[in-house]
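Hypothesis: this fold can be encoded by more than one sequence.
Test: take the structure tokens below, design a sequence, compare later.
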């Protein structure tokens, strides 16, 4: 298994750029991958929520991974989303995935089904049984309607050490996060899945962030996280509060509508999303443009 420290620091949940016709813009994706790496991002996460993955075909998903692998050129680790709410199909996906250039898997809690905690455990245990590279759990109850409890996360961390190596926590429940940090086995990482609470999570002993805002402001985000991990909290707080208004704004009408608006304002991609998601409203777009002027 790969060393778990490769997933500390700042990861970015990479957006999928589209052309005005709604097709994937691989040229922009390649440029964006390079930009993120050159601006201090420690690892990349593709085919997550921010990538609008539910709207991508199987062929498109494969093409996105290959594009990022090639553009990254092994300069930073790469995590690929591999989750679902049907355990059998998720296990088959993990078992048959082409792993060249991929360093880890991000596996979200089963959504819609609302399994019990024992069902949740058995789901991830089945994934761990076939995974050939490290797995990061992804807990985001606001999207899945099912929470991976601290007890379940710790049980998985202990029972599958070396395979289940981290949890991306986006529950917003800091008590739950601290319980995992307090009782986790050595080497198990706890990373924030929510930009706005990253500073608090790191101060409590967490290991970094899988960021959305980092798509638009990679240097500021990675510098903030690095400062916090080095206990340089004066600097980390300064950067956190500089980014904080934008952190709130980009999620106001859903993700990735806000961050894509910010990226278009900076000239990095077309502000195009696939239905059922739509671009940010004119009012929010104007607010994001105003906030962007203070971040350069």
């Amino acid at each position: 298994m790969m060393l778990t420290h490769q997933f500390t620091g700042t990861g970015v949940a990479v957006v999928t750029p589209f052309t005005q016709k709604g097709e994937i813009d691989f040229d922009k994706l390649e440029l964006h991958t390079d930009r993120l790496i050159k601006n201090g991002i420690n690892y990349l996460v593709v085919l997550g929520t921010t990538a609008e993955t539910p709207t991508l075909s199987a062929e498109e998903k494969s093409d996105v991974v290959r594009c990022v692998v090639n553009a990254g050129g092994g300069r930073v680790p790469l995590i690929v989303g591999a989750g679902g709410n049907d355990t059998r199909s998720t296990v088959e996906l993990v078992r048959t995935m082409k792993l060249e250039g991929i360093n880890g898997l991000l596996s979200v809690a089963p959504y819609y089904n609302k399994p019990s905690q024992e069902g949740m455990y058995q789901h991830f245990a089945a994934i761990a049984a076939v995974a050939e590279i490290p797995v990061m759990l992804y807990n985001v109850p606001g999207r899945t309607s099912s929470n991976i409890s601290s007890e379940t996360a710790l049980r998985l961390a202990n029972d599958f050490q070396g395979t289940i190596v981290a949890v991306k926590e986006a529950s917003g429940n800091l008590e739950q996060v601290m319980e995992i940090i307090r009782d986790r086995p050595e080497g198990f990482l706890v990373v924030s899945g929510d930009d706005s609470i990253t500073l608090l999570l790191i101060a409590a002993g967490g290991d970094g962030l899988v960021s959305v805002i980092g798509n638009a402001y990679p240097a500021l985000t990675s510098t903030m996280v690095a400062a916090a991990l080095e206990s340089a909290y004066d600097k980390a707080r300064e950067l956190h509060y500089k980014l904080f208004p934008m952190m709130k704004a980009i999620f106001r009408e859903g993700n990735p509508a806000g961050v894509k608006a910010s990226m278009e304002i900076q000239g990095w991609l077309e502000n195009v999303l696939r239905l059922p998601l739509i671009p940010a409203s004119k009012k929010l777009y104007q607010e994001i443009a105003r906030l962007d002027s203070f971040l350069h």
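Strands lie at 9-13, 43-46, 78-81, 104-108, 135-139, 164-169, 189-192, 208-211. The two ends are 40 Å apart (CA to CA).
Hypothesis status: open.
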